[in-house]
Amino acid sequence: MTADKPLEIGLAAPARPPAAAIVGAARRREEQGIDAVWWADHLLHWFPESIWTPDLVPQAAAQPTPHVWIDPFPAVAAAAAGTERIRMGIGVTDMVRRHPAALAQTALTLDHLTGGRFILGVGTGEAINLTPFGLANERPLGRVEEGLEIMRALFASDGPVDFAGDHFTLRGATMGLAPVGDDPPPVWMAAHRRRGLEVTGRLADGWLPLGTTPDEYAAGLARVRAAAAAARRPASAITPGVYLRVVLADDRDAARRAIDASLLMRFIALTRPAERFAHFGATHPIGPGLSGIGTFLPMRYDRDAALALADRVPVEVVRDTVIHGAPADVAAEVAAFVRAGARHVQLVNMTPLADPSLTGPSDGHLTETVALVRAAATGG
């Protein structure tokens, strides 16, 4: 996909029961003209159980634990049966819980069940989904790189595949299942640092980072494209996507009040890398080398320690974690990422986490935001 192609808009799909809501949401988004729905792949959430009580977290009155997650892969299969056009993505899974050969088979299966509408997103993995279950993730980027090489080899080969790596070994492995069309399902990568961007350019079909600033996004995309060019791949081989968290309200002040008062938003901010804290003159509260989504383990904090940790998150970092405001405010900031090169924008509505009372209005605000982003992209 190149810059002259239409902009695609993706939205987050429900990741909790009831099952009927999961399928119904995909159908409704298709009717609204949304291009894709995306499922997260989690076992645990970023919130400590110790603070999940109604006096601190309003959501706890209705949901007894923050760790309620469906397996997204069968959810895609279920939603596919109730839709016809909308694409469906996993954003993102890892290759620790899921071996790349098994992941290749699952991706091909969903390619068939969706009629070619499936997108597989992969990343290096999050500690919350691995460490509590005894899963080691040493040299995570090397593991993903090998996994992508294996998936590509299995997709492309008509016969046995051998592979000898530091993380995976294949001897006479065969993937007889062919894609539903001419091409295998696209595999997108969530990458942010230099080597990950280079792996994306060489081996992935799309790029899906968490957006920080449009300038950083443009610089990252340039590195992805340079790596693609060095691998003799055309720029059109890689879809530039971006994952953007949003909080929506009637105006920016209302959105900011919701963010500032939310304990949950502070824990989401703790998944930010140390560089974003340093940008605001702060040190990451969980310490150098232990910061960010790849290492944060909220279950290690009792109630007092968790609240003390949250108190050390500067409000500026919390606000920086999400694009927030009225639809026009949010659309203007999203449009800046589009101008920086993004051609698939995934918007994740985090308003219900910031303030549950804004959940209902936020869906209408999200619809308006999507319309404004599309209009800006087409010059309307």
Task: Give an account of the 3D structure.
By secondary structure, this protein is an alpha/beta fold. Helix 4 runs parallel beside helix 5 and helix 12 crosses helix 14. Strand 8, helix 6 and strand 9 form a beta-alpha-beta unit. The protein has a single domain, classed as TIM Barrel, CATH 3.20.20.30. Helices cover about 40% and strands about 15% of the residues.
TL;DR?
This protein has 380 residues and is of the alpha/beta class. The protein has helices at 19-31, 72-81, 100-113, 140-156, 194-203, 214-230, 252-261, 263-269, 274-279, 303-311, 315-321, 327-339, 351-354, 359-378; strands at residues 8-12, 36-39, 87-93, 118-122, 161-164, 169-173, 187-189, 206-207, 239-248, 323-325, 344-349. Helices cover 41% and strands 14% of the residues.
List keywords for this structure.
single chain, alpha/beta, TIM Barrel, 14 helices, 11 strands
Order of helices and strands: EHEHEHEHEEEHEHEHHHHHEHEHH
Treating each run of at least 4 consecutive H or I residues as one helix, how many helices?
14
Q: Which fold name is given in CATH as the topology?
A: TIM Barrel
Q: Into how many domains do the coordinates divide?
A: 1
- Kindly estimate the percentage of residues that lie in beta strands according to DSSP: 5-15%
CATH class: Alpha Beta
Low-confidence stretches are none
